[in-house]
Amino acid sequence: MKINLQTLIFTIFLTANSNNFAQNITLVKDINPSGSGYPNSLSVINNKLYFGANDGVNGSEWWTSDGTTAGTNLFIDVNPGSTYSGSSGFTLYNGNIYFSANYSTFGTELWVSDETITGTYMLKDIFPGSASNSSFPSSFTEYNGLLYFTANENVFNKELWVTDGTEAGTTIFKRFNLSNSSNVSNLVVYNGFLFFTANDGTGNAFWKTDGTDLGTVKISNIVPNEYVKYNSLLYFRANDGINGSELWVTDGTPTGTQMAFDLNSGSASSAPTNMTVYNG
């Protein structure tokens, strides 16, 4: 496979123009005047910026901003009072926003919102029980009209789940490891498939699915990190145990999954990060 990295740029350091950038950076709002607001999980949805933040009064909750000080406010106090909800992972799917949030009675579970207070509720208690039982849904990824994500279920951690937006339609997609946690992560849609990593009991590996059980197959024993799509291929960082952490590429097939470049030859790692497509 011929690899062209002319416009695949990674680990960019902004140096010469750092002063110019600094002149254009301004504080939008001091969310927590007595401390740090810790804004996180920033997502642009319907021309609004949604994020989690702590104002020092309501705990870490769901905030919104239109880019102005006056338009940056607490959106919904999911877990009322000073107890935090830790709302995060805001993802638009079928006109509603799906996210992870903690509520005192149920722990951290899957929530949905139509961007109104009355239309914001827990969709499903995936790990039922007390507040200490949390499913911690994350990695929300839309594929083939459904929303896939990872969640803990009972003693099994990081399983692959799917929802159609209803409680009944929120189910585990596939349990890869029948005796332990599947440790599903790194979801990405590419070339008509959903790719991810999972452990079927033989170790973490690279998988893909077409949304069916028969169409869910292992691609490689390599474990990808930090994907970037470029020139009809999917690039990522991986360590094969021989060449260290290097730049890899796949076309979605086992034979087309290989190391692109051994940038730091031998067993040492080049550890490429912050890969960005530029002018391509």
Set out the fold topology:
Elements: E1 8-9, H1 18-23, E2 40-45, E3 48-54, E4 60-65, E5 73-76, E6 88-93, E7 96-103, E8 107-113, E9 120-124, E10 138-143, E11 146-153, E12 156-163, E13 171-174, E14 185-190, E15 193-199, E16 204-209, E17 217-220, E18 225-230, E19 233-239, E20 245-250, E21 258-261, E22 276-277
Antiparallel strand pairs: 1-22, 2-3, 3-4, 4-5, 6-7, 7-8, 8-9, 10-11, 11-12, 12-13, 14-15, 15-16, 16-17, 18-19, 19-20, 20-21
Explain what the structure shows.
This protein has 280 residues and is mainly beta. The chain is 2% helix and 45% strand. It has one helix at 18-23, and strands at residues 8-9, 40-45, 48-54, 60-65, 73-76, 88-93, 96-103, 107-113, 120-124, 138-143, 146-153, 156-163, 171-174, 185-190, 193-199, 204-209, 217-220, 225-230, 233-239, 245-250, 258-261, 276-277. The strands form six sheets. It has a four-stranded antiparallel β-sheet with strand order 2-3-4-5, with no helix packed on it. A four-stranded antiparallel β-sheet has the order 6-7-8-9, with no helix packed on it. The longest helix has 6 residues, at 18-23. The chain is globular. Residues 1-18 have low confidence and may be disordered.
Brief description of this entry?
Helix content is 2%, strand content 45%. It contains one helix and 22 strands. The protein is globular, with a radius of gyration of 21 Å.
Give the topology string: H per helix, E per strand. Answer: EHEEEEEEEEEEEEEEEEEEEEE
The side-by-side strand order for the widest beta sheet comes to: 2-3-4-5
**Termini separation (Å)?**
19 Å
| Alpha-beta classification | mainly beta
